[in-house]
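Attaching the record inline, Q. Sequence:
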Amino acid sequence: MSIGEFCTREVVIAEQDTTIVELAQLMRNHHVGDVVVVERQGDRVVPVGIVTDRDIVVELIAKNIDLDTVTTGELMRPELITGKENEGIWDTLQRMRNKGIRRLPVVNYNGDLEGILSIDDLIELLADELNTLAEIAGRGLERESTIRKYLS
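Structure, as predicted:
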């Protein structure tokens, strides 16, 4: 399974000159906890950073920094880690764990933004997989019970 199959394709984006208040409003209006910062290169939309609601709280509000004095580009994390849409789930999960990230922009082979993969997406996928395994085990017990009836 590839991360391109499970990532969220509707990504909230902003450019580096977006104000923090505008960024927070985007998050509120779209009910998300992160915004991917992009550069537009003609028809291409290339991710260059990410800002989370936690970044705003911890780096700006908690330090009593005037939100009007900071742009999204100044707040975004300097090193953006992305995943290619054809990468496997397990390898991506391991990289997210090793890097300590909860959200991963997903790009195509050109580096254009295709989606975003979050820990919540992975938990939902794994829960579905565990549910399938539980159903298989339950059906095996049903079969054994049916066979015992015939043999009795």
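The chain is about 45% helix and 20% strand. The beta strands are 13-14, 34-41, 44-52, 83-84, 103-107, 113-118.

More tomorrow.
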